[in-house]
Structure formats: structure tokens, C-alpha cells
Amino acid sequence: MTYIEEHERTRRRLLEGEGLLAPDGHAAICPSCRELAAALAAIDRLAGDVPEPRPGLLGDILARTRPEALGETARPRNAAWAHAVALRRRLRAERRASGQGAVSEDDVPVMTPVSLPGDLVLPAGPVATRALDRHEAADTPLQDESCTICGAAFIPTPQSPTCCAGCFSELQRRQQN
Amino acid sequence: MGRGGRDAELAARALRGDEEAWSRVVELHWVAVWRLARLLVRDTQGAEDVVLETFATVRRTLAGYRGKGPLAGWIQAICRGVALDTLGRRARRGCEQSVEHLPGSVALPGSIDRDARADVERALAALADDEREALLLQVAGFGAREVAELLGVAETTIRSRRARAREHLLPLLEGYRGRTR
Lengths: 177, 181
Known about the structure:
A: 2 domains; 8 helices; B: mainly alpha; Arc Repressor Mutant, subunit A
């Protein structure tokens, strides 16, 4: 192998990150390769030099990995879900404040794919409501509003004024007429 | 009992709900996880998110640790995955990684001043994503073969990416060579 070939091979190896700590025989005698090795080592040091962690981070980790905290983070995240949960809380608080008690199990609000768009896909009907209830263990199902078409218990949103796709079609049909 | 045995015992205790054992796991590994996350993600807030997500994942999947290797390696592998996911999401969103202006309360290593770090971050941010990833994983201590397996590409591809990354960084960082020796 010629000197030039050896030089190119060494340069290539250095750039690939091989042999930075132990440059081969060529690097020992080639000023250009020695300089390159030193420059690359400096780059690695610069890139690898990170600040110390914030002292409070340890406490944050421990707090966020408690079993109950992990249960919180496992909840599905979705704008409609958050809206529904917030609404239920508000309604529950209002119901309690007014002295009204819990309603029957049959009165659970119905959540459907129409009312829960986005990444959370749930089948229509009470199944979705039960899924919501599992995450809201302390919730008592409430009937506070209803579908404008069929009258079923339902929490409408601006995006989802009806309880299901069928009622939504009916609403559109009525609006067109 | 060897290190693997101690790790397995600690993990088993944490898995059974022993909060003291879990705290010990976190205390033993959080700094190393931080370093890897910060190294790969390149900003403090992003690194903290990666650390929190890493330990949440570790706790949720602790049953998957069989004690065959060091717990540190297992946790670092999870951290590496979370960090790469984070970088992937950033790339998909097309958001440009901002050069971080570190707040005064963050202690910088004595050898590198703030301007130097900002220059390093700018230079790294100027690299192609795949080149930066290959370089930083090497700086974090992962071999070309390991990275290749992780990313599902050929080992020679990783070597080429590293070489291109270094070639791009060389002129950008020439001025700091002497200051870091």
C-alpha cells in the first residue's frame, strides 16, 4: 500500500470514528492525520460534554413513577376526552351543590366515535362510557344533557352535537330541509 | 452475589411494589440516563422529558428484565429508544431544533464556556438528522454495529454517516480545539 493510500485509509478510519484512541502506524508519522485525530477527539469531547442534571429532577422522577402517577399517565389523551371529563366534573359539582343525588346506572352519558374524535377510537354506546368511568373511579354517571335528535343521555360538544352517527345524519337531513 | 444477581434482586423487589427498592433503582441510574438523554436530545427540557418517560417505561416494563445483563444497560437501551422516538417525532413535525440558551442556574462543565457550547449546538443542528444521530450515539459509547442494529441499517451506512458528520463539523468547530484540551 502506498503512502497516499495509507493516508486516505487512515483519514477515512478517523472520520468514521475508528482508531481515534489508537491511531495506527501511519497516523504516528503523518502530521496531517495526527492533527485530524486531535481535532476529531476535540469534537467528540465538545459534543459529549453535557451539563449536570437539575437536582430536583430526581424527585420529579420518583414522583412521576409512583404507581398512582403511572396510572394517571396511562390515560388516553384526547381533546374531546378532556372536555368530557371536565364537563362531568363541573356537572357533578353543580349537582352536589344543588343537593341532588346520583342518578341511575341507565342514565350514563353515551360517548361515541362521533363525540370522541382523534386518536381515541371507542365503539358506540355504553362501552365507551364505562371506559371513561374506569378512569374516573370516583365518578357517578350523570344525565345532564341529551341528544337533540333521539333524546338519549349525551354530552354534546360543538363538534359533536348528536349522540351517534345515525342521529348526526338525521340532524343534517333536517337542517337541509 | 454478582452484579447481575443484585440487579435482578433489586428489580424483583421493585416489581413487587417495594418503593424503597424502586427508589434505589432510580438513584443508581438517573444521572447516567440524564447524560445519555441530554447527549442525544441536545436540550434540557427535552432531555428531562426523555428521562421521565424512560423511568416510567422502566417501571411499567420491569417484569421484562430477566437479570441476564446489567440493569444499567437495560435502562439505557430504553432511554436510547425513547430519545430516538423523541428525535423522530421532532423530525416528522419538521421543527427545527433550537439552539439552547442555557439559564444561568445550570452548571456548565468548567472546560467549555457558554459560547462554545452554543457553537457546538449550532454545528450539530446544522447536520442532517441521520448524521447527527450516528455521531451522537457513538459519542454516547455505542459501537457502529450496535447502532446499525438499532436503526435497522447497514454498519457501513453508520460509518459513512459518522464520517460525513465529522467532516461537516471540522471546519465549524476548528476554533475550539485548543480550548478543550
